[in-house]
Amino acid sequence: MSVTIDGTPHEQPPRPGQCLRTYLRQEGAFGVKKGCDTGDCGACTVHVDGRPVHSCVYPAFRAQGRSVTTVHGLATDGELHPVQRQFLQAQGFQCGFCTAGFLMTAAALTEPQLEDLPRALKGNLCRCTGYRAIADALHGVVNVGEPAAGAAVGGNVGAPAGPQVVTGTARYTFDLDVPGVLHLKVVRSPYPHARIVAVDATEALAVPGVHAVLTHEDAPKRLFSTAQHENVAEDPADTRVLDDVVRHVGQRVAAVVADTEAAAEAGCRLVKVEYEVRPAVTDPEAAMLSGAPLVHGDKDASYGIARASANVAGELHAELGDVAAGFAEAEVVYEATFRTPRVQHASLETHGAVGWLDDDGRLVLRSSTQTPFLTRRALATLFDLPLEGVRVIAGRVGGGFGGKQEMLVEDLVALAVRKTGRPVQLEYTRAEQFTAATTRHPFSVRMKAGARRDGTLTAMRLRVVADTGAYGNHGPSVMYHGCHESLSVYRCANKKTDAYAVYTNTVPAGAFRGYGLGQVTFAVESVLDELARRLGMDPIALRERNIVRPGEEMTAPGSHADDLRIASYGLDQCLAVLRSAAESPVEPYPAGWLVGEGTALAMIAAGPPGGHFADATVTRLGDGRYEVAVGTAEFGNGSTTVHAQIAADALATTPDKIVIRQSDTDAVGHDTGAFASTGVVVAGKAVLHAAQALRQKMLAGATEEPLRAHGHWGGSPRSVAFNAQWFRIAVDPQTGEIRILRSVHSADAGAVLNPLQCRGQIEGGVAQALGATLAEHVDIEATGQVSTVGFRQYHLPTFADVPYTEVHFAETEDAIGPLGAKSMSESPFNPVAPAMANALRDATGVRFTDLPFTRDRVWQTLQDSLSSGGHRPKREPEE
Ligand code: FES
Ligand code: FES
């Protein structure tokens, strides 16, 4: 084999069957990424003799005698390629995991192809940006500015890691050589519920290169939750590293550790498992019925499970005021049931970790995690180690969306490292991501609301059933959170909630952007829209009449969020933006299509209840630069950029003088993690405190070296942020196709510290929500088997699918957040589905209650409605 890689000859022959992607990484080209290994995402794009190919489906041997260019070879003579410069200047990325692939595709585009980006970029997926930043880059838009000293906050400062991202040198989890690393593969259950009677590993251990086969007999007996929260008691302790009972298809049964992935896979195929199959339940309503199979029948309330005897992991039953009296007072009432399916995070970097023992015998884990400190604590507890006996590091994380607020791989890697004494890595395949990682919780929400003739709400009632799957990780918390701000954003004296997080024998759900609010907001905002229609009121006016106002209490049944404040208020401004959009002339649309408009709003707490902690240390380096050590990980949320801006302003310098050291449990004190929209409002506040303290020391003439100061924030009290979405759509009644004519999103993020990034979070959130609204669903067969196992079946939004969304910011300044800022990363997701449902209702006269609104479902629902005499479009179709 002789191949030229980025101008350098390589002679190493590929392994039999090896693809070019793994060959290139083996030869050190870590900029070549894996998003799927099936040719569907484009993250692995390279040029072979100048032509772009997906290297994961290109046999390595075919590169014989050819010239391969990766992202590392795009720059010439130290000069960035024009597309690299454009991506840097426009900040055409967030997590950056897809960026190398986009750069390689874009670098090969001709002028005519650049005119048709939806077609030209159809082979590359981005889960973070919503594609507008990428379009900006390819159109040569310069978004990033150069702030003056002390004036970075409020400017479009570029990400500190930008140069590394566009050259492929940013280090993600597996972008390093770990000498002697072993590979771990998992034997998974074919049954939704079974007891493991026996495991025979004899043949697997005989495979050359296999070092160990681990089973429940090797695993700690201690139960834990894969969910990571500051307060461990938030989640039921119902999980073992390897259990002797499997509760969903795809659950770990055994782990095979070998020299190569191929040997580990061969070993997995030879592990013989004897199961005693048990009855299973896959429907949450059925699971709560008397006599249903019990998923955790061997446990009780001492494990943090509400009612294991009824498969209820957590429940909430509470009432404010008198709901029956409220409905009696109402002049109009509407009630319906709304359903949302499983949705995958689909972060382009799959779950994975590599672990080893350092020279002192400490366990070190490098992981794609949003919670390095909580993961360290969980591992220390699990393996009875002192906290300082474990170090967890996150490299740059290739997308999270809540999915990596979970310990899905680190425990198994740690077990294998401790058993073998060797470095071990486990990297999920895309199929494992669908079958063995978490999803958004499917919710069924029965919502009833009543109002007086003037639109004043008199009663709101929720019945929520959330399917947490086989384990309770995040189940109760997602259910509680979903039922909170969705109701508390409205003033109403009478509110009642009955909610259940229910175990079933299905793949576990987990944390996902919005944390339950997206599901319940879909129901609440749809019902309010129906009330407005029945009252003959403008839906925006109905909301304006009932939304919570400054100085008022935010109430939800069962809520004890005493630290929640309206510390700045821009919801009225957000609605005013949507009203003016609604008054705009209708865009052209195809003859015969139906046109409609829809609005929805959402509120979210800036941070979780119960405390969220961050520590930061700022050190003067002596060469004009400062090091900021902060615990939180960067996974595309942009908090690192904002931390650099905050520190630079406090120290009267520029962000390029700020060196960030992050997400390393050795670097700084405890940090709860990068979740619940806390990167700016919690970790940012700790950075601000540390930088201000250092500035004070400097002004006081302190001479100690190194000069250093610490900052801390405990995440309480908390403010609330607001989002509102408006769509104008056209619907083809003949096919069910929905075309978005105009999309407007307004947000109250307090003082916007980096408008470019904040806009990107909103564009990305709206795009992700549109995927969940119009297309995405993970399917599970009656047997409990996940049948959606790759991007081929699971339609992620592509460049062509995502419309331009106008983003507007309210002008407010928060009294709690750092420098007036509020959070803005999860919340843009939440109002999108109901705004689309309300637009559909407006266009077609039909209330759509089940997500996603696929073309088939829209068409079928319209047909059903027509045949039952319904279906009354607002505007008559044009001839
Ligand atoms: S990794 Fe090759 S296309 Fe996804
Ligand atoms: S920036 Fe594209 S996947 Fe994260």
Structural summary, described in words:
It is a single chain. The protein is of the alpha+beta class. The chain is built from 24 helices and 28 strands. The chain has a seven-stranded mixed β-sheet with strand order 8-10-6-17-14-15-16, with helices on both faces. The protein has a five-stranded mixed β-sheet with strand order 2-1-5-3-4. Strands 12-20-19-18-13 form a five-stranded mixed β-sheet, sandwiched between helices. Strand 3 (45-48) and strand 4 (51-54) form a beta hairpin. Helix 17 (517-535) packs across helix 18 and helix 17 packs parallel to helix 23 (832-844). One FE2/S2 (inorganic) cluster (FES) is lined by residues 34-37, 39-44, 54, 56.
Radius of gyration over C-alpha positions, nearest whole angstrom: 27 Å
Strand content: 15-25%
Largest sheet: 7 strands, mixed
Strand order, sheet with most strands: 8-10-6-17-14-15-16
Tally of individual helices:
24
User: Kindly state the mean pLDDT as a whole number?
Assistant: 95
- Output the structural class: alpha+beta
Distance between the termini: 65 Å
Give the overall silhouette: globular
Bound ligands, named by name, code or SMILES: FE2/S2 (inorganic) cluster
Helix content: 25-40%
Poorly predicted runs: none
Strands, total number: 28
List the helices and strands and how they pair.
Blueprint: E1 3-5, E2 8-10, H1 20-26, E3 45-48, E4 51-54, E5 67-69, H2 82-90, H3 99-107, H4 111-114, H5 117-120, H6 132-138, H7 162-167, E6 182-188, E7 194-200, H8 202-205, E8 210-214, E9 245-246, E10 252-258, H9 261-270, E11 272-277, H10 284-287, E12 312-320, H11 323-329, E13 332-340, E14 352-357, E15 363-367, H12 372-382, E16 390-393, H13 410-420, E17 424-427, H14 430-436, E18 443-451, E19 457-469, H15 475-482, H16 485-488, E20 495-503, H17 517-535, H18 539-546, H19 571-582, E21 594-605, E22 614-620, E23 626-630, H20 639-650, E24 658-662, H21 679-699, E25 708-713, E26 720-731, E27 738-748, H22 755-774, E28 805-809, H23 832-844, H24 855-867
Parallel strand pairs: 1-5, 6-17, 15-16, 19-20, 23-24, 27-28
Antiparallel strand pairs: 1-2, 3-4, 3-5, 6-10, 7-9, 7-11, 8-10, 12-20, 13-18, 14-15, 14-17, 18-19, 21-26, 22-23, 22-25, 26-27
Helix pairs in contact: 2-6, 17-18, 17-23, 20-21
The structure holds FE2/S2 (inorganic) cluster (2 copies).
